[in-house]
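Progress note, sequence design subtask.
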């Protein structure tokens, strides 16, 4: 069969898609581009919030049109949307020929064979089973790869549906992670992005204690890896050993993604978040004092239940004071099946959007101030190619994670290949991105 894949949502979803593609390839089927004619199109979905669900449904409807035109024959829907709405998808979207939940990525080949035989596969394995291991076909550029170290989540934030989709927290065995990192390095990967729903909890379930610092130390010993980037760290699980490791190891970027969601003690308590504003303030001060040049990234939700005007103003003041350099700001999306969806004391959707815009404006000013501080400095940039429209090379600094942060556009006297690390003197900024010129190292 000719099989095409579309992956939506987060980096963890992307890794699942990469594993499915490897299984399909190894079974003897042919992988093809998503715009090419195919016997089966696999849409790996996100179902986290309303916007993600809408995006997934839009892709399914586009695939249905391709099916009607005869360009594809069958549609399989996998991932979080399938886990959450499996039978409903088959009922309300009859163009879909089969569904696989988050516990059944390894069943992709069986599903393909069943759908080819005229069946309607429904695979829903345990979402609490050990993390699937196996080869991947990287969908990222060859110099960058995500390294998933765990699956699931035990935090049970009141607004979040992830535990019911991805199961309990399960760490991968350290030897498996290190073996995979070795393979990635031999394949030319220079930037490892360590991911999980919560990487700071790594090892607690498997080894009885925090093991992220130990794992990072061993990853740093792998030749060929130049940058190690960390996503996502839960605030109250950041240990002293981890801080020391990040500060000590040159390969670990001083870039920490710590989603806080809010700062109001009242809102945090209702959302089942551990810690309070005083703890967050103390944590950020400690991290900045001990990790030179630290850049922080976070996630903020506007319009959570119990976010009255005073709590919102408190959040604005907190962001202005802490000057977190990178932030994703999102309006609250009440998700069925979560405790928060049943709570009152919630602002309207329109007000949540208004507050989101105000927070984005605050963060834009903070980012502009950060960019201005870099003017005249020389920073290391990972080149990602040449932008023909801008007539400049484009890449990312160590302070920019792919798909969520900005870029550095720069000129150079010599040809530069994608994947090369280049010292760039920053000369300006534009719309959140920076400009500069390559300098001799």
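Output:
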């Amino acid at each position: 069969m000719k099989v095409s894949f579309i992956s939506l949502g987060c980096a963890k979803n992307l890794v699942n898609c990469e594993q499915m593609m490897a299984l399909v390839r190894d079974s003897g089927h042919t992988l093809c581009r998503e715009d090419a004619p195919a016997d089966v199109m696999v849409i790996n979905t996100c179902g986290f919030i309303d916007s993600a669900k809408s995006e997934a449904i839009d892709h399914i409807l586009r695939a249905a049109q391709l099916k009607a035109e005869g360009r594809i024959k069958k549609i399989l829907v996998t991932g979080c949307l399938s886990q959450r709405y499996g039978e409903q998808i088959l009922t309300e979207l009859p163009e879909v020929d089969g569904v696989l939940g988050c516990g059944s990525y390894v069943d992709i080949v069986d599903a393909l064979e069943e759908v080819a035989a005229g069946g309607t596969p429904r695979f829903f394995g345990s979402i609490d089973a050990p993390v699937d291991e196996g080869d991947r076909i990287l969908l990222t550029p060859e110099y960058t790869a995500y390294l998933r170290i765990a699956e699931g989540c035990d935090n049970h934030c009141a607004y979040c549906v992830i535990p019911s989709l991805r199961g309990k927290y399960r760490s991968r065995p350290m030897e498996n992670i290190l073996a995979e990192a070795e393979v990635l390095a031999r394949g030319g990967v220079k930037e490892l992005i360590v991911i999980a729903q919560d990487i700071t909890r790594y090892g607690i379930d498997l080894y009885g204690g925090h093991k992220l610092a130990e794992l990072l130390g061993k990853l740093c010993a792998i030749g060929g890896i130049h940058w190690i980037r960390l996503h996502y760290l839960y605030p109250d699980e950041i240990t002293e050993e981890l801080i020391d490791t990040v500060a000590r190891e040159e390969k670990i970027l001083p870039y920490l993604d710590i989603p806080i969601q809010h700062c109001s003690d009242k809102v945090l308590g209702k959302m089942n978040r551990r810690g309070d504003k005083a703890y967050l303030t103390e944590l950020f001060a400690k991290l900045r004092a001990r990790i030179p040049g630290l850049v922080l990234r976070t996630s903020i939700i506007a319009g959570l239940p119990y976010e009255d005007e005073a709590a919102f103003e408190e959040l604005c003041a907190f962001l202005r004071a802490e000057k977190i350099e990178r932030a994703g700001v999102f309006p609250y999306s009440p998700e069925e099946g979560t405790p928060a969806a049943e709570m009152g004391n919630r602002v309207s959707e329109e007000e949540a959007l208004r507050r989101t815009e105000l927070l984005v404006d605050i963060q834009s000013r903070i980012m502009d101030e950060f960019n201005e501080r870099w003017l005249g400095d020389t920073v290391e940039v990972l080149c990602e190619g040449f932008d023909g429209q801008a007539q400049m090379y484009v890449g990312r600094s160590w302070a920019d994670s792919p798909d969520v942060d900005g870029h550095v556009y720069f000129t150079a006297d010599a040809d530069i290949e994608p994947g090369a690390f280049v010292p760039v003197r920053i000369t300006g900024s534009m719309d959140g991105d920076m400009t500069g010129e390559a300098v001799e190292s």
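Residues 143 and 419 are 5 Å apart (CA to CA). Work on this subtask will continue into the next period as scheduled.
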